[in-house]
Each structure stands twice: as structure tokens, then as C-alpha cells.
Write a structure and sequence with these properties.
Ribosomal Protein L22, Chain A; two-stranded antiparallel ribbon; 5 helices
Length: about 120
């Protein structure tokens, strides 16, 4: 049974401006250490940060809560399987909401171009 679905779209230039303005303060507040390492390996890191930010927003929409409702963005971590398929690891408040809702499966899709990054999260009970 579907619990929730979320989708988000990020303008990559806007993400780049935020990173340039706030630097590590922003990155550490929003992304996990492994996400920072992953994105930092790419020539256009802001595109990959944008995609991961879209995932985090999509997850919050799918679970039905807004930002600042007991979940920190860095508690939602995008990890890649060996095949490259993206998955979510949840910690702290994100994990708590996930478990309390009785969700069993997370479906995740990410895409990006030079200008935009988008993600979709579908949660199943």
C-alpha cells in the first residue's frame, strides 16, 4: 500500500549560489559526510548537491512533514548501491518518523541536467 509520494525540482544555479555564499556551514547542515565526499568528487559538484537536496525534500513530502518538524536534512542520506542505484539511509528524526509510520519500502528516482535536478520518493507500507 502506498503511504506517500513526494517530488522536488531544484535549480542548480541557485544551489551553486547558496554553496558559494555559505560554504561548509550549509553543506554540513544539509548533507552527510559521505554525500559531501561523493559530490565533491565531481567537477560540477553543485549539480549533485542539487539532486540530493531534491531527494531530501521529496522524502519530507512523501512522509507528510515539513522542514523543521523533527527531521534534519542531514538525517536523510542518499547512498548508492554498487550498481549505482540510489537508496536512502535514515537517521535520527527521519528514522523515527519512518518507523512510526510503518513504512517498509522506499522507492527513489533522481535525475539531473545542467540546469535542474529532480527527485521522486515513493513510500510503501
Amino acid at each position: 500500500m502506498i503511504y506517500g509520494i513526494g517530488i522536488d525540482l531544484v535549480e542548480n544555479d541557485r544551489m551553486n549560489k547558496i554553496i558559494q555564499k555559505w560554504g561548509d556551514k550549509f553543506l554540513c547542515r544539509v548533507f552527510s559526510e559521505s554525500e559531501v565526499a561523493y559530490c565533491g568528487r565531481h567537477a560540477q559538484a553543485h549539480i549533485h548537491y542539487g539532486a540530493r537536496f531534491a531527494v531530501k525534500e521529496s522524502f519530507l513530502k512523501a512522509i507528510g512533514i515539513g522542514l523543521g518538524r523533527g527531521v534534519k536534512l542531514n538525517e536523510i542520506e542518499v547512498v548508492n548501491e554498487e550498481s549505482g542505484k540510489p537508496n536512502l539511509m535514515l537517521y535520527g528524526g527521519a528514522r523515527k518518523h519512518f518507523v512510526q509510520a510503518g513504512i517498509e519500502i522506499i522507492h527513489l528516482s533522481i535525475t539531473h541536467t545542467k540546469n535542474y535536478a529532480s527527485a521522486m520518493v515513493l513510500l510503501e507500507k
